[in-house]
Design brief:
The chain is an alpha/beta fold. The chain is built from eight helices and seven strands.
């Protein structure tokens, strides 16, 4: 994402077209959910979830992004600088996970480590943001976990089937949250892909 776009979101607190589906999804989720955004960058999704009334936290590896989110979004200790692989305990404290365009950055092996920790939970919801289409802007093929199809295949290994929404959001659930993707589709009619 270009810096000016992040400035619009992070500095201007504006929910742009890219983030409007998440805002709408958050409107319909049970408020009991405890959200953890993994690789949250500046934490704009954390800020949105908090504004929607959720207990939300984020973890990001890059200190400059955490500082920026704390400074411009007022997230304080709700966004921490750290490595999720060293802070798996955070997964135990959440039951909803937002993962925006991160799975493909770490690849299948590390994504599986995260999913195995999440999968050990009885009930959970995952909201993943993926990239549009199978090809990059330069015409080269995207990595599988960057695409809707690749994420769907990945989640199917855990017997998870989800629904997608505009601006590349895929929602999957397990246990008591299994039907949340279908419920969201009912409320957000005509917007699924």
């Amino acid at each position: 994402m270009k810096r000016y776009q992040k400035d619009v979101n992070v500095k201007g607190h504006l929910v742009t077209r890219e983030w409007k589906p998440l805002k709408k999804i958050l409107q319909y989720l049970p408020k009991e959910l405890k959200i953890l955004s993994i690789a949250c960058a500046e934490g704009f999704d954390v800020w949105m979830a908090k504004k929607a009334g959720f207990n939300a936290k984020g973890i990001e590896f890059h200190r400059d992004k955490v500082d920026r989110g704390q400074r411009h979004l007022g997230l304080g200790k709700d966004i921490i600088c750290g490595d999720i692989f060293e802070r798996f305990g955070l997964i135990g404290k959440a039951n909803c996970f937002i993962v925006c365009r991160f799975w493909h950055n770490i690849g299948g092996k590390l994504s599986t480590q995260i999913m195995d920790k999440i999968e050990s939970k009885k009930d959970y919801l995952i909201i993943s943001k993926y990239k549009p289409g199978p090809l990059k802007e330069n015409g080269k093929k995207r990595q599988p976990l960057a695409t809707k199809k690749g994420l769907s295949n990945f989640f199917s290994m855990y017997n998870l089937v989800g629904k997608s929404f505009p601006q590349e959001f895929l929602v999957v659930g397990k246990g008591k949250y299994k039907d949340v993707p279908n419920m969201l589709r009912e409320h957000i009619k005509g917007e699924g892909v």
